[in-house]
Design goal:
about 100 residues, mainly beta, Rieske Iron-sulfur Protein, four-stranded antiparallel sheet, three-stranded antiparallel sheet, globular, nitrate assimilation
């Protein structure tokens, strides 16, 4: 199901925005090149939110232990392992829709 999540005008590059869609807590990020990603706001390794993490390129550095997480596929990079769920995003004008 595609759900309106937020407005593009409300995003700041490299700063996460939290939304709850269909009872799922999701962090939305716009990276420096303008692409927008939606990823579950929960790290399986730290059992904590990732919203406050630092974005660098297409990666998110988890805020507690700085695990490097791909915003494209949710994979936690080596030497650590794990994966966060990513959600397909569609932008229409100023509206950001997320497939949940």
């Amino acid at each position: 199901m595609r759900v309106l999540a937020t407005k593009k005008s409300k995003l700041m590059p490299r700063v996460g925005r939290s939304v709850v869609l269909e009872e799922q807590k999701i962090a939305i990020f716009q990276i420096s090149d303008g692409r927008i990603f939606a990823i579950e706001d929960y790290c399986p390794l730290t059992k904590a939110p990732v919203l406050e993490g630092i974005v660098s390129g297409k990666y998110l550095y988890e805020p507690m232990r700085e695990y490097k997480i791909s915003l494209i596929d949710g994979v936690i990079q080596e030497p650590d392992e794990g994966q966060l769920k990513v959600y397909p995003v569609e932008v229409i004008d100023d509206d950001i829709f997320v497939e949940v």
